[in-house]
Each structure stands twice: as C-alpha cells, then as structure tokens.
Amino acid sequence: MKLQTKFTFLFIGLVVSMVLITGFINLSWQREAIKEKIRVRDAGIARALGVAATEAILTQDFTKLRNYIDETKKNPGVAYLVVMDTTGRITAHSEHAREGSMLRSLPDIKSTRADRTVEQRYVGEKSEPLYEVALPVNFASQKWGVVRVGFFLDTLNEELAQATRNTTLLMIGAVLSAVMVVVIAGKKITHPDQKLTSTSSADLTRKVRVNSRHEMAEMVHTLKQERGDIHKNRKELEEIKQKLRASMEELKKKVSGLSALNKGSRVLISTLGLEKKLGLIVDIATSLTNAKKGLLILTDEGGKKLHLKASQGGDINMNLHERIARWTITNDKPISIGEGIDGSWLQKLGEKAVTDVIMCAPLKTKNRLLGVMAVESPIFGKNFTEADLDLFSTFADEVALALENASLTESLIESRQSDSFNRMTSIIIHDLKGSISGLSLLLDNIKDNYEDPQFRADLMATIADTIDKTEDLMARLTSRPYLLELRSESLNALLQRVAETLCLRKLPDVVFIEEYDELPKIMIDRKNMERVFRNLILNALEAMPNGGQLTIVTRKTNRPLSTVVQITDTGQGMTKEFIDHSLFKPFRTTKRKGMGLGLFSCKEIVSLHGGKIEVLSEPTRRGTRFTVKLPILAVNGRLRAIRKSLGEYLLETESINKEQLETALKVQVSDERKIGRIMVDMGFVREQEVELALERQQMAERRLCDLLQRMGKE
C-alpha cells in the first residue's frame, strides 16, 4: 500500500473518530437539555395546578380550578389533570365524568401516598407511554390531597429524534469535508517521505530523482529530522534503562526489608517470654538494617531513668548512647548521625565528635514513651539511608506496641490470678462459715440438751459431717481447682438424701411436695451436686420465714437428652433487674447476712457438669422457681472412657508426664490460652503431638454423640 493511501486512511480514521466522539457528546448533552426543559415545564404546570387546588379547597369554590384544568388540557402535550383527596377519590378531573370515582391502580396508589414530588413513567389505559408529576397539597402542616398532571411522551420522543437527525447530518458533513481535504492535500504532503521510504527500503546508493529544489530541501529537512529523532529516542531509552535498574534495586531492597519486618512482627506477636523477646528484637533490628551493633534501652515508670535491656555486637559507648537516647526521647523523633551529617546538636550535649554511624528511634505508644532502640555501624556503605531510617522507625513503632501489649498482658494475668485467689478465698470462707454456724448452733444447745441421748447422737453426727466437709475442702484446695469426680449416681436418691438431711418432711410450717419421675443414672459429682441442691433449698426456706409450700419435681427430656430438677417456693419473688444484673454473681445478695456466694457457686458447679440453671420469679407474684438441667451422659464404661480430656490423651501416648500436666493446668487457671497451646509454649510437647491428640479426642466426641443419640431413642 502506498504511503499516500496509508496517510489518507489514517487521517480519515482520526477525523471520523473525533467527529463520532464529539457527535455523541453533543447528542447526549442535547438529550439531557431537552429532558430537563420538559421536566421544568411539567413541574411548573403541576405547581400551578397545586396552587389552584389549594385555593379551591380553602374557599370550597372549584370553578376557577376547573377552568384552569380545561385551559391546560388544550395543550397537546398534556394527557390529563387530576386533583385527589387523601383517600384517593377524584375531586377534579380533566374528564369531568370521572370525578367522584376512586383510582386503585399501582401508579394511582403511589401518587396518593406522595409526601413530596413524585415522578413516574407508565403505560396508560390506551397503551400510550405517559409521564406523570404528582405533588402533595399541604396547608398548615397538613396534607389535604394530591394533584397529578400526566403528559404524553410522544412530544419528548419527537424532539429527541429531531436532535438525533441534526447531529447525524452534522457528523456526515464533517466527515465529507475531511475526506476532501485529505484528497486535495495528501499527495503534496507525502511526496518527499515517499521518496525517502522507497530509497531506504531498496538500495541506499541509488540516486533519487527530484523535480525541484524545493522538493530536495524538503527531503533533506525530513532526513535530518528523522536522524535527530533516532538519536533522541536512543538517549531516552538509555535513561529509562538506568532508571529501571535503579528502581529494581530499590524494589529488591524494600521487598527484603518488608520480608524481614514481617518476620520480626511474627516474633513480636509470639507467646515468648518478655526477656527472650527483648534479645530477639535487637537481633532482628540489626538484621533489618544490616548493622553490626544494636541495643534496646527502656525507661522506668517515671520516665527518668534509662535501663539497658538487651544489646548485641560487642563494646558499645553507653555514655554516648544514653545522651542520644535522652535527646530522642525529648524530641520524640528518630535520628541518624554519621559522616557528612550535621552534628551540631551533639556539641550541645558535650560530644565533640562521633566515631561511628548511629541510628536511633523512640519506642512510643499512644500513652507514653517506653524507651529507644538503636543500631550502629552499617555493614554496607558509610551511612544509613533515609529508607533505612524509615524502615527502622516502622519496626520501632511495632516494638513499642508489642512491649506495651506484653506489659498489659502481665498486668492482666496478675489481676486474674488475684481475682481467682479472691474468689477461691471467698468460697472457702463461705463453706467454713456454714460449718461454723452449725457448730455454733449445737454449742448453744449443748448445755440444755447434752443429757438427751438423741441430742448426743445428732451432735456426734454433725461433728463428723463437719469434719468430712472440712477434709473434703482441704482435698479440693490441694488438687486441681474445679476438678469433678464424676460417678454414676441416681439424681432422685441424691435429692431424697438432701431432703432427709434438712428434715424437710418434719418442718411444721412448710408443706413439702415431692414428685420424682423415673430417671436414669447420670455422671455427676455427688458432693458438689448435693451442695447445689442444699443451697437452693435453703434459699427457698429463707424466702418463706412464715411458712409456705416447697415443691421438688424431677423429669426427663429427650430434646436435648437431659434431666430437669425444679425447686419451687411460695416466698417473696425477685425483681427482673436483680435477676438480670445481680443473681448468680459473687458478693451480690438481698440477705442482711451473707456474702452472695451460694448461688454463684451453684451456677459454677452446674456449668462444670455441662448443664445450666434457670430462674423464674416476679415480685408481684409470690414464689420463685429454680430449674437445673443436667445432660444425661455416661452410664456405662464406654461413655466414661470416651469423655477424656486432651491431657489424658497426651498421657496415654506418653507425650507428657503427670507433673507437666499439673503444671500446665495450674497455669490455665489464670490464662485464656487453651491447654494444648500452653504445653507447647512451655516446651512440654510438640505441636504435631497435640494435633494427633486432638484428632483422637474429636473421634471420641463423634462416638459420644452417636451413643447419646441411641440412648435418646431408647
């Protein structure tokens, strides 16, 4: 294809593209302008109708309103005008025969509910496209009705079609004009370049015949211009290559720094101890900045004294680093010093010269400055770069956050340990208080009733029971907290023993009702569950000081498979606020004497059994009902063998010993981590061994679910 033809097609293509783009933009603008003009006109007609409707409603004279509707309807673009009340009944219509009727179509309902201007398009009864504007008629902040004006869309479509035709003709004329210009001027413009092209594509030694000096001058000018462009492009290409190499090196360095920063972040969020973590922080800082030396200096609580916590790399000038650290803390910004860097601020500190390159960054959090971190002597280059300082400062911020979190975690652990100790002490005091109260009661009656053989027998039995409870309490204190001794027990028999111990059937002012359903034996801790039911029954009796009715009911439920025990009294009820915010919480009680630990310990024991305790009580109605739900678990040896803890599976595989398990369990009392994670962090077991034990435990749990389902069906 000849150069002239290529140039012609290229130029025509560019012109056509520009004309098409300009034409489409102009057409879109014209369409929006036409729509906006018609919308403004239609809204003006609707507002005028709304004013006329408001005046007619206030004066109850609809003559002017109907005259306005008739005049406006003469406009060929107006389809209808309607005035409706708030119920949808037509008050005035351009078709008078429809006045007084109700409109129930979807557009009618939408317009009737209008609280502001509503615009909608829909197809009319005669399948003609309509555009409607609906306005609410408001007066004195009250809606009196709605005015609706419908317009034919044919007018809009005609104007849009005319605008499209005009734009199309304009585009065709522009394209034809461009073609004529190219045909006339193309040959003259491309003639010198054609000869150069033919020469360069064939034998360069061949002579090119020219017709005039002017043509020769143009060819020479074109050749020089092309040669200059080639040299310029070659130079720009070399510059781009150099910049690309520099950018690639910088990118590699940043990727390496970010990778090291990511590894450092994983160390910071690990569960290592604080002392080990400090040494690793300095090691990561020196590796991150390619430095030979590094150190970490922290302040005390008051922020006055500095303490070196970790260092690496041999001899360090601590006097200089302390001065730099104080300057960094005071000014709250990182600093890099070395060859060629202004060190005038060091002269104010008494240092005349710096023998090595140092970079220091503050460890700051939102609340306070924790200290500084510094590195010294870069391995590559004379000084640390700005990129090194930015990366080092970012890592310092993460270190500060990690140190603050570690400090808060230690404070939280200490607080939880203290809280756990206080709770345990309170429960012990509560249990001892009950035993002492029983002994005190016997001591008060011993002088008058000691000669009675029955009293002496009761005295010996009470003392023996108190001793057993105290020994049991000491045994629980010296073993793992909250460790249940599960055995197969009859819940009905346990409740009957508690009732016998408290002499419920002999109380003069209390009507005692017992309803025991047939229940299977379940796995429970007998002593702890006796304690639960004893506390609930005593609370019920204390709520009825003048007597009443006490009811104990047991039953079995299949979904879920569980036993239910209900203890109901007719005493004074509790408020909903007390139940929601105070019940089952320690040190919350309505009694004059008491620590509020009875119901708290009841809920804890029931929860350890996998059950739950519920209460129903209202102060306006006399009576309270406590419901204890316990799951029906192992009756036979298979189920009991299945319900093992993770530690027991690790003991079976000899991954740990009993001493290590007890140590980990003691740590778990005041730690939110799971027992497996605690043993891994303490170095007792590997993660792979924990994963295997967890798989065995999950398989056993699935077997447990299958057995429970079969028991429920039986």
TrEMBL record:
Record keywords, A-Z: Cell membrane, Coiled coil, Membrane, Transmembrane, Transmembrane helix
Transmembrane segments: 6-29
Cellular-component GO terms for this entry: plasma membrane
Taxonomic path: Bacteria, Candidatus Aerophobota
EC category name: transferase
Keyword Zinc annotated: no
Coiled-coil ranges from the UniProt annotation: 223-261
Gene3D superfamilies in alphabetical order: 3.30.450.40, Histidine kinase-like ATPase, C-terminal domain, PAS domain
Record PANTHER family: SENSOR PROTEIN KDPD (PTHR45569:SF1)
EC number(s) from the headed UniProt entry: 2.7.13.3
Origin: domain of life: Bacteria
Name of the protein in question: histidine kinase
Membrane topology: Multi-pass membrane protein
Molecular function in Gene Ontology: phosphorelay sensor kinase activity
Catalyzed chemical reaction(s): ATP + protein L-histidine = ADP + protein N-phospho-L-histidine
Subcellular location: Cell membrane
Annotated source species: Aerophobetes bacterium
Stretches assigned to the Histidine kinase domain: 427-634
